[in-house]
Design a protein that fits this description.
The protein is about 0% helix and about 60% strand. The protein has about 80 residues and is an all-beta fold.
Length: about 80
């Protein structure tokens, strides 16, 4: 069986029931100029207990399709957002 992909990201939305949106950022080098640029992808993530809040750093893991856009599941909350 293939290894399930894992990613680390920041929660940008938790307004849904049992779902969050996680922004994952990575760096890639520009093809011509060689400068590194930051790129962001947003993933819909299944959060069964509604534990993650906006600003939390979370670890997500690839899973079976939960809905049309949800293919990831919350593994753990790595660091909670600081209270403002």
């Amino acid at each position: 069986m293939a290894q399930k992909s894992e990613k680390l990201g920041i929660v940008v939305s938790n307004k849904m029931q049992k779902s969050i949106v996680v922004a994952v950022e990575w760096q890639v080098r520009h093809g011509l100029y060689g400068k590194t640029e930051r790129r962001t992808s947003k993933f819909m993530v299944h959060d069964d207990e509604n534990t993650a809040k906006i600003g939390d750093t979370v670890e997500i893991v690839e899973t079976r399709p939960m809905s049309r856009r949800k293919r990831w599941s919350l593994k753990r909350v790595v660091r909670q957002a600081s209270a403002v």
